[in-house]
Model the fold of this input.
Amino acid sequence: MSGAAEVQFDGLVGPSHNYAGLGPGNLASRGNRGLVSEPRAAVLQGLAKARAVAGLGVAQAVFPPQLRPDLGLLRSVGFSGDDAAVLWKAQQEAPGLLAAAWSSSAMWTANAGTVSPSADTADGRLHVSAANLSSALHRSIEAGLTTRMLRRVFADEALFAVHDPLPAALSDEGAANHTRLAAEHGETGIEVFVYGAEGPRGSVAGGVEPRTFNARQMRSASEAVARRHGLDPEGVVMVQQSPVAIDGGVFHNDVIAVGDRDLLLVHELAYVGQAATLDRIRRCYEGLGRGTLRVVEVAAERVSLEDAVRSYLFNSQLLTAGDGRRVMVCPEQCQRVECVGGLLEDWKRDGVVDEVLFFDLHQSMRNGGGPACLRLRVVMDAAQRAAIPAGLWLTEERYAALCNWAERFYPERLSAEELADPGLVRVCREAKEALVGVIGL
Ligand code: SUG
Done:
C-alpha cells in the first residue's frame, strides 16, 4: 500500500450524552446510572484528545454524532401523538426505552464496525463491516445510520467495500473485539478476532461461559466478518475471551488488550487457555515472515483484573506518531491507580513505549468509554485518504469550529428528567443542522 497510514476516526459525543446505565456488563455504566451528565464538557474532552493525537502527526478525522432522540424507536413500541406526547408518555411508562432513544452511544466508534485494510483482503479493497450491536437496544439502533454513514464516507466502490450489519442473532460489536498486527501498517498483517460465545445458542467451546454477564461478541459473527472481508485464513486467529474477565467487567476485548504493529499488550487473565492462545497469535504473526511479535503480558499480581478495569489501562490508544515513536494515549485514571502508574513508568523506561500521555475523558469514562472506545482505526493508503469527504479531517481550524459549535448548542448539564423536554429535541436538531456547515456531512 503506497503511503499507508492509520487514520483515527473519533466519534463526536452527541448533545444528549447521558448516564442511563444501559451498558450490559459495563461496570462504569451501571455504577454511574442516574448521574447528571455534562454533554458540553464531554464533547470538548473528546475533541481535546483527538486534537492532541493529530498534534502527534497521526491522521485524525471525526464521525458526526447520530441524531437523537430516535423517535422512530419510541413510535415502534407503541407511543403515539406528537413528539412531545411520545416523549412524555415514554417517560411515564418506559423510562428505559426513552433513555435508549436518547443515547449518544454512537460516539464509541470502536464499535461502529470492523475494518480490514487493503493489504489483508483478497480483492485489495478496504473492507468495513458495520456492527449490529444487537446485545443492547440503545446500541442496536446505531447500526442502520452507521451503515449509511460508512457508505457516505467510504463511498468509492473501487477502493472500499462496506458490508451490512450481520443478522441480529449473530451478535457483533466491531473493532473493539478485533486487533490487527503487522510489521508496518501498510503491510499484510494478521487479524485477531476475540469472541465470548460461540453463536446464537450461547454454547461456548470447552463449556466455559460467563456467569454474571452475557458475552457480547460471537465467534460465528467474527468468522462471518473474516469471510466477507476475504481474509487469508492463515492470517486469522480466533480467540476466546476469558469468562472470568467478562464477569469482571471486560465487556469488550479492548478493555483487556491493545496492540499496534508488532506489539501486543495484554492482561494475564484475558483469554481462555492464555499461554496456548498467545502462542497461536505469535506463530501466526511469524508466518508473515517479518520477525517476531513482542507480547507484553501483565501479571494479575502486578495489576489485578479489577485495577485493569478501573484504570482502563488497556483501553489506551497505542499509536505510531508521525516521527515513528510509539505513544500511549491513556485516560487520566491510569495515573490515579498506583500499580498502573508504576507499570507505565516501567514501560517507558524499558522502551515498550516511548511516550505516555494522559487525558481527562471522565465524561465518556463514566459510561465505560475510554480513549480506544472513542476511535475507529482505519489503515488507508494515500488514494483512499484522498477519497473520503475532506470535511472530516480534524485540522486546527476545524477543531476550533467544532469547539465553537459545541459551546453554542450543547447543554452544560443533562438529567434523566430532561429527556422528556421537547426543547432538547429542537436543540439536537439545530446542532445537527449547524454541524453540516462545519464538516459538510
Ligand atoms: O457499549 N456504554 C458503551 C461503552 C462502549 C465502549 N466501547 C468499547 N469498549 N470499545 C457500551 O457499554 C453506556 C450508555 C449508558 O449507560 O447510558 C454504554 O452504552
DSSP finds 17 helices and 15 strands in the chain. The two ends are 28 Å apart (CA to CA). The longest helix spans residues 422-439.
